[in-house]
Design goal:
Chain A is mostly beta strands and about 120 residues long. Helix content of chain A is about 0%, strand content about 50%. Chain B has strands at about 5, 10-15, 20-25, 35-40, 45-50, 55, 60-65, 70-75, 85-90, 95-100, 100-105. The chains are: A mainly beta (about 120), B mainly beta (about 110).
Chain lengths: ~120, ~110
């Protein structure tokens, strides 16, 4: 069974930094591209970042480019999102999501984690 | 960036009705479109990929169609469990973008 479990989302002050993790199991993690998608309270879905199975290429939404860094450790079946210079607008539930098709950069997420809430507030 | 516009934003329908949601792209995305269902407090669930392909395990009352810039998600014979918000997403180019969502209520 595919499982994605996010962690690392406590309260952080504006301007602060935070690292999210996503532990993957139940599939060959190294064969799939991975995404971070976020959802502000009461709002719609916003795609944040994608990392291919080999860590290149990597893509970001304009709203986080230069502030967020996606990475992965295939040996540990883990995905990460390093977030810096956080603002209140970054407050959201952050989901990690696996791309549906292995060995592809042209796919869509199929499995999603339960999400981790990141709150940016003073 | 490619913009996706869904219509309507909300709709209310009765059990057994046929419901159609439209997603329009600001430029051609071929068939690189997915549809998701999200219920309150839950992660999104993939329903349709590549515009018209039903994901495994999704009831056959859901169907998708379209190509280029106009796409539709149809729910035949609406069920109480279909009360949710539905999103389209394009995966033609980066940044991948979502529509703003369509909330479906059951009368």
């Amino acid at each position: 069974e595919v499982q994605l479990v996010e962690s690392g989302g406590p309260l952080v002050q504006p301007g602060g930094s935070l690292r999210l993790s996503c532990a993957a199991s139940g599939f060959s993690f190294s064969n799939f591209g991975m995404n971070w998608v976020r959802q502000a309270p009461g709002k719609g879905l916003e795609w944040v970042s994608f990392i291919s199975r080999s860590s290149s290429p990597i893509y970001y939404a304009d709203s986080v480019k230069g502030r967020f860094t996606i990475s992965r450790d295939n040996a540990k079946n883990s995905l990460y999102l390093q977030m810096s210079n956080l603002s209140v607008e970054d407050t959201a539930i952050y989901y990690c999501a696996r791309d549906r098709d292995a060995f592809s950069t042209s796919s869509c997420p199929d499995y999603w984690g339960q999400g981790t809430l990141v709150t940016v507030s003073s | 960036d490619i913009q996706l516009t869904q219509s309507p934003s909300t709709l209310s329908a009765s059990v057994g009705d046929r419901v159609t949601i439209t997603c329009r792209a600001s430029q051609s995305i071929n068939t690189w479109l997915a549809w998701y269902q999200q219920k309150p407090g839950k992660a999104p669930k993939l329903l349709i990929y590549k515009a018209s392909n039903l994901e495994i395990g999704v009831p056959s009352r859901f169907s998708g169609s379209g190509s280029g810039t106009e796409f539709t998600l149809t729910i035949n014979t609406l069920q109480p469990d279909d009360s949710a918000t539905y999103y389209c997403q394009q995966f033609s180019t980066y940044p991948r973008t979502f529509g703003q969502g369509t909330k479906v209520d059951i009368k």
